[in-house]
């Protein structure tokens, strides 16, 4: 998994700085409504194109409008829910955003210590930090296949007047805090989105049946088989509630759901999500605030039998919190953020695995390689040290870093039947990891699966939204205390796998295998005759490192019976020439002991002359440095 931040289009519509808003996904777009910016409630509908990664221009700019909205919009609010539903179909997707209150709603409270929230007693304004709420999104498999995409570039953009693939798609707005009055809102509004972006329509259907009444910091989820939105009440402005209501999205008929089992205790500012598991739609309710403390319990409602249960969940529980988001995606629930005690906000991601009913171990992904892995860096797959000349008991002379890196020396005097056997031997000398794999001790493995998250996560927050689209979750807005946020993040729950490159590239293979061909007749196309003895070479190798050799091969020389040309090198010591050739094929400087009377110094000078003759500048510089040491050593001997 990986976090990444969406960059905002600086030339277009800017991202609003709000919390406790709602975000609903449909047909390649995110529909954002309501929210609170620290001063007022928002009433404006905003639409974000996932394909274009920008906010669309609204109807207020008539000349450039990219969507049009008719009808009377709901009054500005926050702490409401916005649920996507499809009338007349047994399949759909629900998106619910339960946010906290607006400009702090006056609620009936009494002193609750540090949490400062209770619905019983004298009237006081609830703290903003206590009123962050949640967004949740769930989808059934059919809708996910039809309308959700792993690649945002594949998301359809449908601004036309044609009807959407989802006939009668609608977003149902329920309740919230309007910013005044003793109670939360009890109204319901619908945004018809089935006719494309240019024909969006607000309308308010008359209520039928038994509506739930004022709802704030509640949650609402669409149950596709029933064609109903289930509303877990939350708060009404005076008290915390736990009653469950259902809205038929075809008839707009309300009913109270008679449940079985022990329901969750009264709470608000909780989060919920619907997950289809083993052909059953389950409604999950997590955490929230009950008037005395924050919660971290989890309940499940079997929507077929309307039965509550409190499952036994393994792993480490998230800290008690409110105002977090809970997003259902592929048999898992993703919990992010929220506020804890003393208004502390969280930035952790918690994952509940429905199959094993366990909270997974979530860790940040590091760049450290696993033990035994070999990482190729700086273009060098093998690290080769120069072999030093000895002076005064310390390494000196043809030492230091050469062009092949530093670390270990490969013994090129060893002969092998082919380069593969030599490569294996070199790997052992260099300490490369063996390809053999040893499995971990099964008795030492964790019982809880570990998930690693890469990238930089969103900052601490609550009252944000988290919306699932395909395999991604989009996190937007929220606040931490008085710090209101407008950033936009995406969590890729199934990103393309990161391929770890462990095999060497061609230049590294050349470096590892070239030493095999030193003075080797295999593929040799040039033979040097030095003091009557033959030294095998390869034109491509030699002309690559030396312009002198390149010019020599271009002039033409007589060929031997084997097809290789022969070149006589006059006035040159065979051992010195062979040392130079070894350096070309291995990058290893020859071993010459400058303390070996005058012989060592003579060999060093002869190698310098040869390096200069064949334009081997790197070797020449090393020889110059060594000869400087030789001169200093000679003067020292003269002085004593």
What can you tell me about this protein's structure?
This protein is an alpha+beta fold and 640 residues long. The protein has 8 helices and 39 strands. A 6-stranded mixed β-sheet has the order 8-11-24-25-26-27. A 5-stranded mixed β-sheet has the order 6-14-13-12-7, with no helix packed on it. Helix 7 packs antiparallel against helix 8 (617-639). The longest helix has 23 residues, at 617-639. 41% of the residues are buried. The model is unreliable at 89-165, 367-417 and 430-438 (pLDDT under 50).
Describe the SSE topology:
Elements: E1 2-5, E2 22-26, E3 29-33, E4 45-49, E5 54-55, E6 69-70, E7 81-86, E8 93-98, E9 106-108, E10 123-125, E11 134-139, H1 141-147, E12 169-174, E13 188-192, E14 200-203, E15 208-209, E16 219-223, E17 228-235, E18 240-248, E19 253-256, E20 271-277, E21 280-289, E22 294-302, E23 307-309, E24 325-329, E25 332-336, E26 349-353, E27 358-359, E28 361-364, E29 389-391, E30 394-396, H2 419-430, E31 450-453, E32 465-469, E33 472-476, E34 479-480, E35 483-484, E36 488-492, H3 506-513, E37 526-530, E38 533-537, H4 539-545, H5 547-555, E39 565-568, H6 574-586, H7 597-613, H8 617-639
Parallel strand pairs: 6-14, 11-24, 15-19, 28-31, 37-39
Antiparallel strand pairs: 1-36, 2-3, 3-4, 4-5, 7-12, 8-11, 9-10, 12-13, 13-14, 16-17, 17-18, 18-19, 20-21, 21-22, 22-23, 24-25, 25-26, 26-27, 29-30, 32-33, 33-36, 34-35, 37-38
Helix pairs in contact: 4-5, 6-7, 7-8
